[in-house]
Amino acid sequence: MNSSRDMVSLKQSIKSWGMQLGFQDIRIADAHADMTSAEEGMFAWLEQGFHGGMDYMAKHGTKRSRPSELVPGVLRVISVRMNYKPPAAKESWEVIHDGDKAFISRYAVGRDYHKVMRARLQKLADHITNEIGHFNYRVFSDSAPVMEVEWAKKAGLGWRGKHTLLLSREGGSYFFLGEMYTDLPLPVDEPIGDYCGSCTRCIDICPTQAIIGPYRLDARRCISYLTIELKGSIPEDLRPLIGNRVYGCDDCQLVCPWNKFAKVTQEADFAVRHGLDDVSLIELFNWSEQEFDSKLAGSPIRRIGYEQWLRNLAVGLGNAPTSPAVIEALQARSLDSSPLVREHVQWALRQHGE
Fold first, then answer.
1. Which residue of 15, 30, 38, 281 is most buried, as measured by CB atoms within 10 A?
2. Does 158 map to a domain?
3. Is 279 helix (H, G, I), strand (E, B) or coil?
4. What DSSP string runs through 143-195?
5. Which residues are [4Fe-4S] cluster 2-binding (predicted)?
């Protein structure tokens, strides 16, 4: 199977199989498309230090923007998206505005998307193999040096919003991305336009002003970076701005007009687990390490580890309304074995005059 007609037919089949596997859209980009602008932007971003402690962002160099350096012989990038907005979840702003509650980014209240997305992409590859026999490919979902948003943009899945996330007219931004690099010469799809216009709501709402301009994110100030990627101490001047966001931050998505089109996921794996959409800071802070490991098994949250989890919750409790219960919870960990946790607990107690 190598004629252009065969490839057109196979492309249609791939899109059909992908939809059956739970993807909401599947598009295809030329792996040798011009990525000069994206590559220059990436290196400028790294040079300014906006990646903070994410050394892996700089480690792989041009492999991110040049697929053939990662997977020799690649011709196409099959880009997919899958909705994750959880059904029946507590309204996000209600949780964010309740200082006693813990806000967890809605992508993380269910199962770990890395496993779900890669497993579905592998099934898609299996469908292709069953149809045409052996072909070369690799599948990814936030798991390798791949410029996911740029390739999704090239493939026509959407456009890059001013907050740097991909936006879709049909699905807003509440979706995961995945890719298959392949040597199949499939017909490519066309990119679409940018539909953000003059809107700056995502820039204006950012609690830490991490979006320093359209399409420019200083990750060192981003709450998602501070609560997930940063391994050490959270800068003191940023702690009050974090509020009760203990794992990630959705503010820029919550105010985006395009998310009125976001669809609730039909994927059971992304449904809320253990009440993480509406839970108190104190309850989570009182979890033992064994409870953390067991309740968050299969969750993306588990990868940050118990120490970072307690660090984040201590900041949340420092920003919570003062109450005997909050102070008691903090004091109970004031002699924690972790210097990182102790430091943030002491800060939190000072916020309450203790």
1. 281
2. yes
3. strand
4. SSS--HHHHHHHHTS-EE-TTSSEEBTTTBT-EEEEEEEE---PPPPPP----
5. 206, 222, 249, 252
Q: What is the pLDDT of residue 200?
A: 98
Q: What is the pLDDT of residue 1?
A: 60
pLDDT averaged per 10 residues in sequence order, the chain, 354 residues? 81 98 98 94 92 87 91 97 97 98 98 95 98 96 91 98 97 97 97 97 98 97 98 98 98 98 96 97 98 96 98 98 98 98 98 95
- How many domains does the structure of the chain reveal? 1
Q: Which residues are annotated as a binding site for tRNA?
A: 231
Phi and psi, residue 180, nearest 5°? -125, 120
Say what the pLDDT of residue 56 is. 84
Residue 23 sits in which domain range?
Answer: 4-87+108-182
Annotated binding site: 64, 142, 166, 177, 196, 199, 202, 206, 222, 224, 231, 249-250, 252, 256
> What distances in angstroms separate CA 314 from CA 239, 249, 277, one per listed residue?
10, 17, 18
Q: Name, in order, each residue with C-beta under 8 angstroms of 266's C-beta and a sequence gap of 6 or more.
A: 22, 83
Is residue 68 assigned to a domain? yes
DSSP assignment string, 286-338:
T--HHHHHHHTTT-GGGGGHHHHHHHHHHHHHHSSPP-HHHHHHHHTTTT-S-
Query: Is residue 311 situated within a structural domain?
Result: no
- 133: in domain: yes
> CB of 99 within 8 A of CB of 320?
yes
CA–CA distance, 50 with 238 (Å, rounded to integer): 16
| pLDDT at residue 2, rounded to an integer | 60
Query: Is 336 among the catalytic positions?
Result: no
